[in-house]
């Protein structure tokens, strides 16, 4: 049935646009392979991803809002010379985990936290780590689990 089709929102932080493109390609491929629908919104940095997901979830409760079954968070945080890396990495992860547990949202975590861009590319490329695809598959897994445990068809 069409109404049983899974609908995801991909939220990508675009600080590193090339890496974001690679992560997005993997996520889209994984989502399409499962026959799910998706939309993409962008924010400028990883730290904004939890806020964007919270806004989307709240908007979906309104009369004209779009309801999503799950969210795929994509982005990259590359270590620099300051403490900023730890703050962005930790607070992004905390924000996403708070949403996932507190609001019981299906969120696939595809935010790379790496020491350098080489590590990021090794995790982002479809031919290597495919972290974007993995995040999408994890999100779809949780959506399926939520449907199973609530008695809904998959």
TrEMBL record:
<dbReference type="InterPro" id="IPR034964">
    <property type="entry name" value="LS"/>
</dbReference>
<dbReference type="GO" id="GO:0009349">
    <property type="term" value="C:riboflavin synthase complex"/>
</dbReference>
<dbReference type="GO" id="GO:0009231">
    <property type="term" value="P:riboflavin biosynthetic process"/>
</dbReference>
<feature type="binding site">
    <location>
        <begin position="76"/>
        <end position="78"/>
    </location>
    <ligand>
        <name>5-amino-6-(D-ribitylamino)uracil</name>
    </ligand>
</feature>
<comment type="similarity">
    <text>Belongs to the DMRL synthase family.</text>
</comment>
<dbReference type="InterPro" id="IPR036467">
    <property type="entry name" value="LS/RS_sf"/>
</dbReference>
<feature type="binding site">
    <location>
        <position position="123"/>
    </location>
    <ligand>
        <name>(2S)-2-hydroxy-3-oxobutyl phosphate</name>
    </ligand>
</feature>
<feature type="active site" description="Proton donor">
    <location>
        <position position="84"/>
    </location>
</feature>
<dbReference type="GO" id="GO:0005829">
    <property type="term" value="C:cytosol"/>
</dbReference>
<dbReference type="GO" id="GO:0000906">
    <property type="term" value="F:6,7-dimethyl-8-ribityllumazine synthase activity"/>
</dbReference>
<keyword id="KW-0686">Riboflavin biosynthesis</keyword>
<feature type="binding site">
    <location>
        <begin position="81"/>
        <end position="82"/>
    </location>
    <ligand>
        <name>(2S)-2-hydroxy-3-oxobutyl phosphate</name>
    </ligand>
</feature>
<dbReference type="Pfam" id="PF00885">
    <property type="entry name" value="DMRL_synthase"/>
</dbReference>
<protein>
    <recommendedName>
        <fullName>6,7-dimethyl-8-ribityllumazine synthase</fullName>
        <ecNumber>2.5.1.78</ecNumber>
    </recommendedName>
</protein>
<keyword id="KW-0808">Transferase</keyword>
<dbReference type="InterPro" id="IPR002180">
    <property type="entry name" value="LS/RS"/>
</dbReference>
<feature type="binding site">
    <location>
        <begin position="46"/>
        <end position="48"/>
    </location>
    <ligand>
        <name>5-amino-6-(D-ribitylamino)uracil</name>
    </ligand>
</feature>
<comment type="pathway">
    <text>Cofactor biosynthesis; riboflavin biosynthesis; riboflavin from 2-hydroxy-3-oxobutyl phosphate and 5-amino-6-(D-ribitylamino)uracil: step 1/2.</text>
</comment>
<comment type="function">
    <text>Catalyzes the formation of 6,7-dimethyl-8-ribityllumazine by condensation of 5-amino-6-(D-ribitylamino)uracil with 3,4-dihydroxy-2-butanone 4-phosphate. This is the penultimate step in the biosynthesis of riboflavin.</text>
</comment>
<feature type="binding site">
    <location>
        <position position="109"/>
    </location>
    <ligand>
        <name>5-amino-6-(D-ribitylamino)uracil</name>
    </ligand>
</feature>
